[in-house]
Amino acid sequence: MQVQPYLNFYGRCEEALEFYSQKLGAKTTFQMRFKEAPEVDKTPAEWQDKIMHVSFTIGDSALMASDGMCAPAAGHHGYSLSLDPKSSEEGKRLFDALADGGTVTMPYGPTFWADGFGMVTDRFGVHWMINVMKPQQS
Is the pTM of this model over 0.85? Predict the structure, then answer.
């Protein structure tokens, strides 16, 4: 069993997928638009080309997303997505990429537990933590 985050982007899903593809190397594995659903006549015309469901990967992790149920934006609160790059340099690159158009909550840098750690809210309101753990001492 796995836990897979399901993100709603309230009309900005395609833009978010392109951003994550460019910045994090995200790869789409499945996508369906509202116009491809069996009950397409129940979807407002302005939502026909919006994304009803998409599955994608970032590294080895699978995520899912949608433009939502044609509802107004509700935001992303109460969780963070955490990335665990292999090096501080890669962590800094990912942090800076997610910060493009976003808001830095905690600048990226070394901590007592990590070679590199930072928190950022991206331009879509998704909260991220970048955490490069220090090597385990035995």
Answer: yes
